[in-house]
Amino acid sequence: MLSMIGLLGGLILLIILTLRGVNLFIAAPICALLVALTSGMAIFPVTADSNFINAYMDGFAGFLSAWFFMFLLGSLFGKFMEDTGAADSVASYIVGKLGMKHAVLAVVIACAVLTYGGVSVFIVAFSVYPMALSLFKDADLPRRFIPATLAFGSVTFTMTSAGSPEIQNWIPVKHLGTSPYAAWEVSLVVAIFMATVGYFWLNKMIKKAVAKGERFAARDDDPIILERERPHPITGVIPLLVVLLLSFMLHDVLQQTALIVALLGGVLSIVVINYKYFHNMANAINMGTTGALVAIGNTAAVVGFGAVAKVSPAFIAAVDAMTHMPGNELVGAAVAVSVIAGLTGSASGGQAIALPLVAPGYLDMGVNPEQLHRVVAISSGALDSLPHNGYVVTTIRAICKETHQRAYWPLAALTVVIPLVGVALALSLFITF
């Protein structure tokens, strides 16, 4: 009982501190320590048993090891797009051709294409942010909606849809023996629903804010846009296509390493194509590397909390309860994956923990594996987007330099509420037909 109080208390405290803007290098370890103390976990590694220091640092260091080069190259890619003026050039072209009213749509489409092309959602945010900033500035839209726009195009109707190369659509393949295109008919209906309703809601929120007098507010640390010759818009699109194509072609062969190659190709293509347009390459490199360290550090701090939570008795009991729910198996799987993803702050974490426990029994009971695949994939992308989620923290704080108070609630509407309704729609279609 005490462990459960500590787990829930630590999670709630982490959410509150995150929303209040407390430094995550302080907030996450403190909340993880609360979980450890109430779980009877040793604090220091004086024995071979599980302890707080080792558990936290294993999670922290493991994330750094797995993602450092992707964050570094992704941050450099974004900064090079800014410094050369390529992002501004693309933004100006889009606004000129489509009109300012389609600025938001352009950002959503760019994120969706890259995500469905296999680029990690973290890197999509780094890559598209410079263009999004320019588009929102040209259209005079409140910049606090940029994180929500980036997230909507990345982690909703694309990340968990049939055919998506993102890990959230591939983890079930291993456990269920399905294909990435499992239940594509229902997936298509749900994706269209989420895209349509989500985009309408996003526009409605932005229009309401503009009607109240909110406008784009420039900041001192915004990229300096000088009156100078800009590169052709196509030179800003080519590097994005290089990343997309390399990631897509090499994904099956190199797996996660393909993204490193793809991002390196994108960075080099910017340098080759737009070298003469650099304003200050050395400064762009310095800012890019610093931004990458801040982004990956914030995310790793939250991952460390999840690593401690996962070894607590309360978490083990919660997983057992969630994976043995009575009633319809598809509903039980959706609830289990959603809740576990919320506790860990990770969509892939929710799947990786729940599927090995529920898949064998459900398959033996005759549950359709393709339906189970799609329900698990979609449900994993809902409660995972709570304030402490690594992608949410990175996008809001490190990339967009916003606060949770200003930017999180529009993002939550699109990445928590819309996917939850999408899960309900998928379940109703599977159960009815």
TrEMBL record:
<dbReference type="Pfam" id="PF02447">
    <property type="entry name" value="GntP_permease"/>
</dbReference>
<feature type="transmembrane region" description="Helical">
    <location>
        <begin position="407"/>
        <end position="431"/>
    </location>
</feature>
<feature type="transmembrane region" description="Helical">
    <location>
        <begin position="181"/>
        <end position="202"/>
    </location>
</feature>
<feature type="transmembrane region" description="Helical">
    <location>
        <begin position="60"/>
        <end position="81"/>
    </location>
</feature>
<feature type="transmembrane region" description="Helical">
    <location>
        <begin position="102"/>
        <end position="129"/>
    </location>
</feature>
<keyword id="KW-0472">Membrane</keyword>
<dbReference type="InterPro" id="IPR003474">
    <property type="entry name" value="Glcn_transporter"/>
</dbReference>
<keyword id="KW-0812">Transmembrane</keyword>
<protein>
    <recommendedName>
        <fullName>Citrate transporter</fullName>
    </recommendedName>
</protein>
<feature type="transmembrane region" description="Helical">
    <location>
        <begin position="257"/>
        <end position="278"/>
    </location>
</feature>
<keyword id="KW-1133">Transmembrane helix</keyword>
<feature type="transmembrane region" description="Helical">
    <location>
        <begin position="234"/>
        <end position="251"/>
    </location>
</feature>
